[in-house]
Specification:
Distance between the termini: 16 Å
Strand content: 35-45%
Structural class: alpha/beta
Bound molecules: guanosine-5'-monophosphate
Number of helices: 3
Order of helices and strands: EEHEHEEEHEEEE
Helix content: 10-25%
Largest sheet: 6 strands, mixed
Shape: globular
Radius of gyration: 16 Å
Length: 180
């Protein structure tokens, strides 16, 4: 069992790179089918989603699409601040576009809830959400339920594959769960 120790916390490998790749392929297949006739704009939520997004967009089949980025911050260490800050705003016109938000993990749903409202206000024609991980038991906002989910997870804190611990460990190729 691979383990990581970070700032006094002990993490154990939960998803191997191979398992992650299978989850990503499954999400990419569904998106490829649903957007066959469209030209979606993928809005990647930085920082955490950059690894998932890089794998996801390359696994799409026969899709003409654009990719852009937005950077928000709502989380510090292992507890949420409950506030969303737009650190890097959208550079792309979303008016009349079919938008797919790409997230690393949906937890309370606050980020997606606020981001959807933001994109609706900018005139997006449709908005769906693709996330590598989803914590359904933590969800507080109905409209933040993701449309495409790599894998569901219970409430534990995870790191790796883009997900950080205070900025570190994003480069791990597997996903690790904290052990109490
Ligand atoms: P939400 O707004 O849905 O409550 O939180 C979404 C953000 O919180 C994610 O994009 C991620 O940055 C952070 N987050 C939530 N759960 C975890 C977790 O288990 N591990 C890490 N590293 N970040 C998390």
């Amino acid at each position: 069992m691979k383990t990581i120790d970070e700032q006094g916390y002990h993490f154990e490998e939960w998803l191997t790179p191979q398992e992650i790749a299978q989850d990503v392929a499954q999400v990419a297949d569904r998106i490829s089918k649903d957007y066959q006739e469209k030209e979606p704009l993928f809005v990647v939520v930085l920082n955490g989603a950059f690894v998932f997004a890089a794998d996801l967009i390359r696994a799409l089949k026969d899709i003409r699409c654009e990719v852009t980025f937005i950077r928000v911050s709502s989380y510090w260490g292992m507890s949420s601040t409950g506030k969303l800050e737009f650190i890097v705003p959208l550079q792309q016109v979303v008016d009349n576009r079919d938008v797919v938000i790409v997230e690393d993990i949906v937890d309370t749903g606050l980020t997606i809830h606020q981001l959807k409202a933001h994109l609706r206000g900018l005139g997006a024609a449709s908005i769906r959400v693709a996330t590598m991980l989803f914590k359904p038991r933590k969800l507080e906002y109905d409209d933040a339920k993701p449309d495409y989910i790599g894998r569901e997870i219970t409430d534990e804190f995870v790191i790796g594959y883009g997900l950080d611990f205070d900025g570190f460990e994003r480069n791990l190729d597997a996903i690790y769960k904290v052990k109490e």
